Amino acid sequence: MTTTERVRSLPPEATWTHHFDFDVQIFDTDCFGVMWHGAYLKWMELGRCKLLNNMGVTIDVPGQANGHVYPVAEQNLQFKHKAPYAEPLRLTTVLTVRGFKMEFEQVFRSRHPEHMEQVTLQSKTTVLVLDGDWKIQRRLPTFLLEALQDNIDKPTAAPDTIE
Questions:
Q1: What is the domain partition of the chain in residue ranges?
Q2: Residue-wise pLDDT tens digits, 81-135
Q3: Residue 139 in contact with residue 3, Cβ under 8 Å?
Q4: What is the Cα–Cα distance from 31 to 162, expressed in whole angstroms?
Q5: Considering all CA atoms of the chain, what is the largest pairwise distance in Å, rounded to the nearest integer?
Q6: Would you put residue 63 in left (φ > 0), alpha (ψ -120 to 50) or beta?
Q7: CA torsion, points 66, 64, 16, 117, in degrees to nearest 10?
Q8: CA–CA gap between residue 112 and residue 163 (Å, rounded)
Q9: From its phi and psi, is residue 28 left (phi > 0), alpha (psi between -120 and 50) or beta?
């Protein structure tokens, strides 16, 4: 199957999902004892990387021969509720492909028994693919299309836990 055929074979409504659980760490809190707004970005990056890694896509070192990097082109965050220190959270990451862009929708939900499933933050992030020479790829690379195609019908795994 050619690359063009692979692109056409990705259903436009196809999504790929990953979950992981973690507790708000003391180093991620502000002076009020709640998760600092900038700390969410680190966890979001980890969620995007874990989703891709679980499909066999590795994050390369910039400048690596035949390597690719995935910079954020646009990001929108909506803060809904506070997440205090030690709050158990679940981050759900959903990937959708839009042409040569990857769109990640991410939601942080509480796992605390008193407010289970309460959304603390939701976001949408657009990511591009750059080659080892830092050139934007206007078509998704073959290896990425193959990874997406190979994982299109796989059920969502149980959440990872970050200790």
A1: 3-153
A2: 999 999 999 999 999 999 999 999 999 999 999 988 999 999 999 999 998 888 9
A3: yes
A4: 24
A5: 55
A6: left
A7: 180
A8: 16
A9: alpha
Q: What is the DSSP string of the chain?
A: --HHHHHHHS-TT--EEEEEEEE--GGGB-TTSBB-TTHHHHHHHHHHHHHHHHTTPPPPPTT-TT-EE--EEEEEEEE-S--BTT-EEEEEEEEEEETTEEEEEEEEEE--GGGTT-EEEEEEEEE--EETT--B-SS--HHHHHHHHHTTTPPPPPPEE--
pTM of the model: 0.90
Tokens of 12: 């436009």
According to CATH, the topology of domain 3-153 is Thiol Ester Dehydrase; Chain A (3.10.129)
* Amino acid at the residue 56: G
Distances (CA, A) of 72 to 41, 104, 113: 11, 10, 34
